[in-house]
Amino acid sequence: MTRQSQKSYFAMPGILLSIVISFGFLASLAAFIAAFSQHRFSEQLVVSEQGVVLQNAKGQIIGRSPRIGPRAQEIEPADLTQEPDVMESYDQQHRFTARQDAFAEILRSQKILSITVNESAHAIGLTPEKIMPFEFWLQMLVGFAGFVVSAWIWALQPKRLPNQLFGLVGVCLWLAATCAAIYSTRWLALPTDLFAPLSALNALGSIGFGIALICLFLIYPIRLVKNYLLILVSIPILGLYVLGQLNLLGEPANETPLLTAIEMLAILVLVVIQFIKSRGRPLDMAAIRWVGVSTLIGSGLFICMAIIPVLLDAEPLVNQSYAFAFFLIVHLGIAFGLKRQNLFESELWAITMFKAVSVGILLIAVDVALVALLGSLSGATVLTMLLILPFFYLPWRSMVQRWLFQATPIEDLLEEVAHVALIDNASDRSAKWQEILQQAFTPLVIETSLDGNSKGQLVEIEEQGVMLHIPTVAGCAPLSLRYKNKGTRLFQKRDRQVAARMIDFLSSLKRQQEAFADGVTSERGRISRDLHDDLSALLMSGLNSDNPDDLKSVLRSSLAEVRMIVSAEVGDTRLLADILADSRAEAADRLEASGIALNWPIVAASGILMPQPQKALTSILREMVTNVIKHSEATEMQVKTRLENGTIYIVASDNGKGASAGKRQGNGLNNIRVRLTVLGGNFDYGDLDPTGFRTSIALPVESQ
Amino acid sequence: MTVPQTRILIVDDLLSARRLLGSAIKDVLAERNIVNYALSEAASFKEAMVMLDQKFDFAFVDLHLPDGRGWDIIRSLKANPEIIIAAVTVMDDRKSVEATLAAGADGYLIKDVEPDLLHYRIARLMAGEPSLSPAIARMMLARFRPEQDHQTDPLTDREREVLCLVGRGLRAKEVAEQLKISSHTVRDHLKSIYRKLDVTSRAEVAIEAQKRNLT
């Protein structure tokens, strides 16, 4: 359990990268300490046309033919050779080594060192120097930067061979550059027990760098050979390296310089092969373009400037210290390529992760430096610092953090997408949708996908990242987006997710909007149907009446209808028993107000009514009560109800004067008949003997 | 001994509505043998506002005045806790009903009902009788489900019985007959039940009731 969680913790690329960078930093620090602990003086020994001269810190010559030590040993130009690899013979190398040892002994044993110049006894005291020269820092920096970039790429996919090989490239570059930094910027001499291993490690780094790159281009971006061949290729080169270390290769120039030159040539050939092989494969092409070209430029420059002259027995064209910077081109080129294309199977998070780790480390470094500084300062200065921190450092720190964790602009885009859903006109909507996709991905081409409908409803990356398929959404035609970022990038998984999110959002908004529009339409339909069916029938009946009392009653009923229509809820089914109860209470109220008694026994009536029958039943019962109040002159109204076989039967009678005696067949009754017929019910009425009036209705009821 | 004067306020912007209400109120007063009364009318929100310094026993306030909202008048009038106020309306949305009840109105009157019914309802309102419709009763029963713990049950067993009968459409008198208690006792139960309703429930009930013309 614990082991597993630890394992997944170390599988986090950011964690992995942080750890590896910390190791690299500690190793660089160790190298710095090794260099820093050597003796160093501000006066410089320089090889000029007149032989070795001594310059002061400002670069003025203060003496020629310098001699040093108790026996006044003369310093020769060969003693100042930066790189012993470039010597012509092993004899020269042995002599060089012996003299280095002797000089190192002098530097170490003399407390106050003086140097005699101009073949006179005139001695010049040397000034100890604690600042490392620029060339030292340059090489250290190149080594460390290359290491960080390689570590980053390795951390993205630690188990993939190309990433591992590229990681190895960085480790070798660091090794070569850091070792060279120490010995090539020495002051006159290093003891052999330091110089020899450094030189050997530098050679190992240089050769390993070549081996790693050869192996990389044998399998990346297109695999040319099987894995065992990588080992078969590496062994002979390593063998030559070992022979070189045992001085068995004839002359020093046959060691590292020749080997690296051969390696670089092999890399050149492999890059060209990869170029040819990856034609027509955009992803591989992008990879070889970035990795291959930057390797060719970086390594090519290094060979031309530093190695080939040595092989031709000439002086290097550039100081080797500077030549190392060429290798950084390889790493920087790949880093940029990675940012633009998904080299080494990376995704966009690679950049975010690298930013986070490097800025995170930077922030920690600044924090540590500040704390260290605070500890070493006096009280008053600490106070000043504490006052300054909130105004400068902390805002900067939070700014950096904001930059680091900035939100993606998809939120802004989603707002735009929301507008698309609101556009009614289909062609305007399509145009706006394309405009948003243009903003999101800046493709060179957006075209309607002719076979898009057959491709389905998913966003797909096609043609190896060149094309993004956008399915049809909200009535907009399916689209093909080509050449992301004005043709400079390939579509990645993240783009697919962004597009899918936009599409989900748009289609759900569109659905909601349509549902709303449907609701409006159906509600409008209901109101107009109700107005037509119920209200116009009532008002028409009013038109046909000359009796002012009838007219008033029609107007009251109409207002009641309007209230029902306005407040009705769509699809609101209710219990039959509830409707009967409400109608009974209303009838009792109205009849009591008119001094008429109500006899309406309550019986059980299960079942439910849909909105239309509800309204009809309520209106009918109300109309029946109105009739009794208006026309009957009755003293009692009796209502009997019964639910039988899914139909509610209601018989209402009064003890009034009956229809034949007065004007009872109002239009209200005809209206009731029409309503019930529409709902599958029926209605009849008639006089009672000897007196009274009766209405009977039947209405189908849904079972509960 | 002088009987204190009964003061009544009618707020409505329509003259016809004021006449209709006024004559119905006068009929009710005559029926109750109240002769010492003063009937004040306000035709607008502003007119009503300047009359707020006076004390009224009853007020009938139209909810939708051209220059203001009736429930604001009701809220101001309710500063006098003794007053009985009816909101007068033809048609209302949910918000108005809720605002009106929250302002403290005691009842709802629909203007266009038959004269007899209007009279009947005004009479009941002025007598301080609560009208509990079946819809209210059913909603109360649904809201206050019987609890396991009788201590926390807001309704008494008798109140529950009354509610159940009212919910099935019986009137107070019929409930009294059915339960073999006096009509007064039933009215006391109803008043007690009504007090237990909060404003939201009352609004829901009022809307429900108004939808079916039950107010």
Uncertain runs of chain A with pLDDT below 50, 5 residues or more?
Answer: 1-7
- Please tell me what the overall shape of chain A is: elongated
User: What is the helix tally of chain A?
Assistant: 22
pLDDT < 50 runs, ≥5 residues of chain B? none
Task: State the total count of DSSP E strands of chain A.
Answer: 18
Number of helices of chain B: 10
Gross morphology of chain B: globular
What is the chains' assembly state?
A: heterodimer
H and E order of chain B: EHEHEEEHEHEHHHHHH
Structural class of chain A: alpha+beta
Which strand order spans the largest sheet of chain B, edge to edge or round the barrel?
A: 2-1-3-6-7
Secondary structure class of chain B reads alpha/beta
Please describe the biggest sheet of chain A, giving its number of strands, its sense, and whether it closes into a barrel: 5 strands, mixed
How much β-strand is present in the residues of chain A?
5-15%
Molecular structure report:
The complex is a heterodimer of chains A (about 700) and B (about 220). With about 700 residues, chain A is of the alpha+beta class. Chain A contains 22 helices and 18 strands. Chain A has helices at about 1-10, 15-35, 90-110, 135-155, 160-185, 190-220, 225-245, 255-275, 280-310, 320-325, 325-340, 350-375, 380-390, 395-405, 410-420, 425-440, 485, 495-545, 550-565, 575-595, 610-630, 665-680, and strands spanning about 45-50, 50-55, 60-65, 65-70, 75, 115, 125, 445-450, 460, 465-470, 480, 575, 595-600, 610, 635-645, 645-655, 680-685, 695-700. In chain A, the strands form five sheets. A five-stranded mixed sheet of chain A has the order 13-15-16-18-17. A four-stranded antiparallel sheet of chain A has the order 5-4-6-7, with no helix packed on it. In chain A, a hairpin with a 4-residue loop joins strand 9 (about 460) and strand 10 (about 465-470). In chain A, helix 6 (about 190-220) runs parallel beside helix 8. The model of chain A is unreliable at about 1-5 (pLDDT under 50). Chain B is an alpha/beta fold and about 220 residues long. Chain B has helices spanning about 15-30, 45-50, 70-75, 95-105, 115-125, 135-145, 155-165, 170-180, 185-195, 200-210, and strands at about 5-10, 35-40, 60, 65, 70, 85-90, 105-110. Chain B has a five-stranded parallel sheet with strand order 2-1-3-6-7, with helices on both faces. The model of chain B has no long low-confidence stretch (mean pLDDT about 80). The chains are: A alpha+beta (about 700), B alpha/beta (about 220). The interface of A and B includes residues 584, 592 and 600 of A.
